[in-house]
């Protein structure tokens, strides 16, 4: 299984999760786990996803999700799980 970590941060609004999950479903990405919080109007979400069956590379999805984030007012990042773990190792 190839897994990717998706993080989202920005001002809270209606439909953020729906729009991101719709994009992921359309491209064969399965959401394995999701955590989201809203603190004083700031939306924060982290998803663990399975990108094994994705029809795009993580790099191509990163570009698409960056554009989607700009459209809905949030910053969306996607990283391969190994890169995420390496960057956040203490």
Provide a descriptive summary of the structure in words.
With 90 residues, the protein is of the alpha+beta class. It has helices at residues 16-26, 58-72, 81-87; strands spanning 3-11, 30-39, 42-50, 74-80. Strand 2 (30-39) and strand 3 (42-50) form a beta hairpin. The longest helix has 15 residues, at 58-72. The mean pLDDT is 94. The chain is globular, with a radius of gyration of 13 Å. Helices cover 37% and strands 39% of the residues. It has a 4-stranded antiparallel beta sheet with strand order 2-3-1-4. The chain is built from 3 helices and 4 strands.
Give a short summary of the structure.
With 90 residues, the chain is an alpha+beta fold.
Calculate the mean pLDDT score and round it.
94
How large is the radius of gyration?
Answer: 13 Å
Widest sheet: strand ordering: 2-3-1-4
Sheet/helix structural class: alpha+beta
**Count of discrete alpha- or pi-helical segments spanning 4 or more residues:** 3
Low-confidence stretches: none
Percent helix range = 25-40%
Globally, the shape reads globular
Order of helices and strands: EHEEHEH
Largest sheet: 4 strands, antiparallel
